[in-house]
Amino acid sequence: NAYVTKLNAILGDKEEGETIEAIAAKAKAAGDGPLFNQAAQHFNHAFYFGGMKPNAPDTMPADLGAALTKNFESVDAFKTAFMDKAVGNFGSGWTWLVYDTADAKLKIVNTGNAGMPEGTQRPVLTMDV
């Protein structure tokens, strides 16, 4: 809530109708750190909490398991790689599973502080570290 409240205070009615991703990207390109931090953290946290579901099934969807196996050799290898990447993310930040449209592959990336996937990276899963 704090990120949204601060973001609204900074923006007022500017950027109305823009996606939060677009606001963050514009702010980063313009070097507006305070606006970027609030917009990016709003996106990151909304994405993170949006992935949590009560009474979620115990099994992974077959197509996700197949994609993880294709890109990481196995689901267990993905889990190990994801956790290793997260533990190695120094300080505050995020670890992401992204789909990179440039080469049609799943990848694990770290971002620091309010960083978020950029360019051709599409977020699939994230962990707040």
From TrEMBL:
Job description of the protein: Destroys radicals which are normally produced within the cells and which are toxic to biological systems.
Ranges where the Manganese/iron superoxide dismutase C-terminal domain occurs: 63-129
Catalytic activity: 2 superoxide + 2 H(+) = H2O2 + O2
Cited PANTHER family: SUPEROXIDE DISMUTASE (PTHR42769), SUPEROXIDE DISMUTASE [FE] 2, CHLOROPLASTIC (PTHR42769:SF3)
Entry GO MF terms: metal ion binding; superoxide dismutase activity
One Pfam family, short name: Sod_Fe_C
Keywords noted in UniProt: Metal-binding, Oxidoreductase
The UniProt record lists the keyword Oxidoreductase: yes
Domain Manganese/iron superoxide dismutase N-terminal: 1-52
Top-level taxonomy: Eukaryota, Sar, Alveolata, Dinophyceae, Gonyaulacales
Family: Belongs to the iron/manganese superoxide dismutase family.
Keyword Methyltransferase: no
UniProt enzyme class: oxidoreductase
E.C. designation(s): 1.15.1.1
UniProt name for this protein: Superoxide dismutase
Membrane spanning residue stretches: none
